[in-house]
Amino acid sequence: MVGIAGRSLLLLALTLGFGPAAAQDAPGGPMPGQAVTSHDWSGFYLGYHSGGALGLADVGDPYGKSIFGDTVRTPGALAGGQLGYNWQRGSLLYGVEADASLAEMDGTNTCFGYSGFALGSNCRSEIKALGTLSGRLGWVLPFDGRTLVYGKAGLAFAHYELAAKPNGGLGLPASRESDVAWGWTIGGGLERALTPRWSVKAEYGYLSFDESFRAPASLQQTAPPSGGYSGLAGAGTDNDLGIHQFKLGMNYKLGAPAGDFPDAPSAMTAPGGYVLTLGTRYVYGWGQFHKDLGLQKRGLTSLASRLTYENESTHGWEGFARLDTPFRGVVKGMIGGGSSGGQLNDEDWDLPFGPSLIPYSNTISAVDNDVRYGFIDVGYALRKGQRYSVSPFIGYTQFRQNMAGLGCRQIANPNSDCGTPIPTNVVGITEDDVWEGLRLGSSVEVEIAPRIHFTGDFAYLPYVSFEGMDDHRLRNLVSPESGDGVGVQLEAILSYDVTKALSLGIGGRYWSMWTTDGDVDFGGTGTTIPMRYASEQAQLLVQGAYKFGGRKP
Questions:
Q1: Class of 270-553 per CATH?
Q2: Could you tell me which CATH number the domain at 44-262 has?
Q3: What integer pLDDT is reported at residue 3 of this predicted model?
Q4: How far is CA 440 from the centre of its chain?
C-alpha cells in the first residue's frame, strides 16, 4: 500500500519535467556573430525536488559494547519543495534557502546486544519528513554564466520515530520515541540554468541530530546454560541520527524573462534524427541483504531471528543503451552483474538448544555473493533544448541475488550453534532471491560546461515484489519466501566528450528496496510466519559510451 508520502513522491517524480509554457524549447542556434546571453542568478526562486536518502541511527548501548548492531540503516525516498533568494556579485553568489520534504524511510537492526546471556531488542527507525534552512555560497562558472557550483550549511529538522522491542516474544514492553528533532546540515550541489526562468539542480546534503533514547527493560539469564531469566532494568542512552540525502530538482526564478538562451548547436542534441548511445561500465560496490523473522500471530515487532548478509568489494560489468527519437520519445536500459565475498550474521533469540536455553546467539559465516540486475524505461523529453533534456519515464527493474553462507563460528553464546567452528569449505545456508519493481521517475541530462555533461536518474518504486528461497542445508530446512514493498533507485554520472561521439565518465548509484508485507513458509510446511526483507546496493561506476546518428555540429 502506497501512503500519503508515497503518493506525493510519485506525483513529484512524474512532474519533474513539467513547467509553464513560457519555458520554451530552444528553436535553434543564434545567427553568426550573435552573443551568448549570460544568466542573472539574483532574485527569488522556488522549486521542487525528488530523490533518496539514507538515515543512520546510531543507538548507544548503556550495558556495554555490543556484539553486533546498534546502527539502524533507514533508507528511502523523499520529495518536496524549496524557496530562496540569491545575490550575485560577478562570479560570486550567496543566498538563503529553505526546503522541506516528505519522506518514506524505514529500517531495522539489532540494539543492545551486549551479551549472549541477555535478550537484546529489535530497533526500528522511521523518518517521515525533513528539511533545512541554510545559507548558500557559490561560484558561477565563467564559460557562459549558467552553471553554479555551491555549498550550503545551516539548521535542519527531521520528524522521526525510533522504537525498541525486546526480542524473543516474551511480551516485554517496547520503548518508543517520536519527535521533531533539530540539528545542523552541510552539503553542496550543482545547478544549471536551462532558460532564464528554469534551472535544474543535483544536490547532496548531510543532516545531523543528537537525540536521547531509553533502552527498554529486558531479561538476562541467571544461571547459564539452562537457567531461567531475571529482570534487566531499562536505561537511558542516546540516538545520534545522521541522514545522507541526494536530490534532483528544478527551480523557477520569479520575474525572469520568458524564452530561451540563444546557443550554438551542441553535440548533445540531434534535431531531426535518431541518436543511439551504447556503453559499458566497470562497477565497484557494496551491498547488504537482511531479513527479520517475526513470531507467528505476534508480528514483526519482537523477533525470533535475523539474518544479515553484508557483501563488500563487489566487482562487475554493465552494458547500457539509450535511444533518443526525433519525436522526443526516449528508451533506455541497462543490464549488469557482479560477484563478491562478504559475511553473514545469523542471530537468534530465546532459542532452546538441547538442554540449554540461549537468550542470544550470533554466528558468523563467510559468503559467496553473485548479483544480476537491470532495468528498461520508456520516457518522453518534456523539456528539451540544445544542451539539456528532462525526461519523465516509466519502467521495470529486476535484481537477482544468490548468496551462500560458508562454515560458521559463534561470537555471542558458546552454548549455541557453531560453538565448535565449522570450516568454510562447508556450505551451511543459501539464499536465492528475485526483486522486481515498477520504476516511476525522471532523467536529467545537461551540458554544464564545454564537453562536460551531467546525467541524473531518480526512480521511485511504488510497487516491488520479492520472491526468495532459503535453504538451511545443514538442517535440511527449505523455506519459500515472498513479499511486497517499495523502493528507490538513484544514479548520477559526470562525463567528458573525448570526441563528438565518444565520452568517458564516472559516477555513482544507490538502490534500496524493502517489503512492507512479507512472510516465509517455514520449512515448506504451509505454516507462514511474518517476515521483513530489505536490500541495499551502493556502487561506483566508470564508463565509456559512443553515440551513433543524429546531427553533429
A1: mainly beta
A2: 2.40.160.20
A3: 52
A4: 15
